[in-house]
Write a structure and sequence with these properties.
Elements (H helix, E strand, L loop, with lengths): L1 E7 L8 E6 L2 E5 L11 H6 L10 E3 L5 H4 L2 H6 L6 E4 H27 L11 H10 E4 L5 E4 L2 E7 L7 E9 L2 E7 L22 E5 L10 H17 L3 E5 L5 H14 L8 E3 L2 H12 L9 H8 L10 E3 L3 H9 L4 E5 L9 H8 L6 E4 L8 H6 L4 E4 L2 E4 L3 E4 L9 H13 L6 E5 L3 H13 L3 E3 L6 E3 L1
Parallel strand pairs: 3-4, 4-5, 5-6, 10-11, 11-20, 12-15, 12-16, 13-14, 13-15, 16-19, 20-21
Antiparallel strand pairs: 1-2, 1-22, 2-3, 7-8, 8-9, 9-10, 17-18
The chain binds zinc ion.
Zinc ion binds next to loops.
Length: 465
């Protein structure tokens, strides 16, 4: 018998973790961090998805922290078996998990030094290093054994570099059933990576539903918007502060600014990638040109040309804390891209502390901001935001560009699941994860009206494959 227990990203967008039981073995699909300011987040992060000795293997869909960020905690608690991921996901996890450990230690230390309430770090740098030793890189479209009786295959999810949907063929009682876990589904036409590939032959689908209730603006339109925001803010003498995930979004924005600069659509101004992590991640991108979408004209030209896609004269990748602080002493228009993507931690906080009160500046939101995060408060244009325990009036201009999402929107999710169904005669049930309730309910209603049986499981819900 095979069953699935939903643990994380159930009626929410963080903490991705689904537990597969096959013939007495237990496999985790993802083990991500719960994020946000809700009171229950530290407790959820400190709660193991299953007893460590009972976990036989982990399969990781991609390197985002809400999917991979709790792996070192499991290792800290004694997990010592294999973790399977695509090769690019493995390469990305090395700097990202190390950074996650570092930020947790640093934030706890900062808050305790300032006598503020804080949660203990989940894990230390050595746990991240040990996690990497357990990770096993696999190429796309190559079936591999997860545990006896379960074969998995990664196919491109088109979401970030290395991202995968996971096909799991589970043999139980002499029959094979196929579970398809979407991971996070990307979009067709993203400028760097290839388009998503919907798997076939599914008996049951676990699908993300982050944007199950809305459509995005176009990717091409996003670049034009970015150009407008840069021009207008530069004309006021302000700085553009962009909280961005170090992986994916930062490279997309850099690529778009490169294109805009080459076309003469933005003025010459310094662009600071103020993130050692983004710098390392960009190096990983440069190591995996085989995963780039060669059909995108700009990427194609710069893969084979003299100027690399993510390096051009206006861009500076900063490393040290001194270099980062020096940015705050500079005057005049500039672009600052810094992690974290939801403005929960990292160097973006120092820039917001320094620049959020200045009406000449722009805070440019280019990614999804979960409920309870500082990023969401900025999107809501709350008059006062709290940064490092200090109240800062939010007087900077806030601009939101939705076209940069790396997540499929309502129409693209529907395309993906319809493609899966067209190639899966036995598919009936679709279990929606990784979405807030409004998005999930809308998505489920549409699917149910179109012949699917859609479910929105809460944490602790079980179903049989
Ligand atoms: Zn993701």
């Amino acid at each position: 018998m095979t069953d699935i227990l939903f643990h994380g990203a159930a009626r929410e967008v963080t903490g991705s973790c689904h537990i597969l039981h096959v013939n007495g073995r237990t496999i985790l699909l993802d083990c991500g961090l719960f994020q946000g300011h809700r009171a229950d987040v530290p407790k959820k992060n400190h709660t193991l998805p299953a007893a460590i000795p009972g976990i036989d293997a982990i399969v990781l869909s991609h390197a985002h922290m809400d999917h991979a960020g709790r792996l070192p905690f499991l290792v800290h608690e004694g997990y010592s078996k294999q973790i399977f991921a695509t090769t690019a996901t493995l390469d990305l996890c090395e700097p990202m998990l190390a950074d996650s450990a570092h930020i947790q230690e640093q934030d706890a230390e900062f808050l305790s030094r300032h006598h503020k309430e804080h949660a203990d770090p989940l894990y230390a740098a050595r746990d991240a290093v040990r996690t990497m030793e357990l990770m096993h890189g696999v190429t796309y479209d190559q079936p591999f054994d997860v545990v006896p009786g379960v074969k998995a295959t990664f196919v491109d999810a088109g979401h970030i570099l290395g991202s995968a949907s996971v096909i799991l063929d589970c043999i139980s009682g002499g029959t094979t059933k196929r579970l398809v876990f979407s991971g996070d589904i990307g979009r067709k036409g993203l400028p760097i990576i290839r388009d998503p590939v919907p798997p076939s032959g599914a008996n049951l689908v676990i699908m993300e539903s982050t944007y199950g209730n809305r459509d995005h603006a176009s990717v091409a339109g996003a670049k034009e918007e970015l150009g407008r925001v840069v021009r207008e803010t530069a004309a006021r003498g302000g700085r553009i502060m962009i909280p961005a995930f170090a992986v994916g979004r930062t490279q997309e924005i850099v690529l778009a600014l490169h294109e805009l600069a080459e076309a003469g659509s933005i003025p010459h101004l310094p662009i600071y990638i103020d993130s050692p992590l983004a710098t390392k991640v960009t190096a990983v991108f440069n190591e995996h040109p085989e995963l780039f979408d060669d059909s995108e004209a700009f990427i194609h030209a710069h893969m084979h040309g003299s100027e690399a896609p993510f390096s051009f004269p206006m861009v500076q990748y900063t490393q040290s804390v001194e270099e980062s602080k020096a940015i705050n002493q500079k005057h005049g228009p500039m672009v600052i891209i810094a992690a974290s993507g939801m403005a929960e931690s990292g160097r973006i906080l120092h820039h917001l502390l320094n620049g959020a009160a200045d009406p000449r500046n722009t805070i440019l939101v280019v990614g999804f901001m979960a409920e309870g995060t500082l990023g969401r408060k900025i999107v809501e244009k709350q008059p006062m935001i709290r940064v490092y325990g200090e109240d800062v009036p939010l007087r900077a201009n806030v601009e939101i560009i939705n076209g940069y999402s790396a997540h499929a929107d309502r129409t693209e999710l529907r395309w993906w699941v319809d493609e899966v169904r067209a190639q899966s005669p036995l598919l009936t049930d679709v279990w929606l994860v990784h979405g807030e309730p409004d998005a999930q309910d809308a998505c489920a209603a549409t699917l149910n009206a179109n012949g699917y049986r859609a479910h929105c499981p809460t944490a602790g819900t079980t179903t049989i494959l």
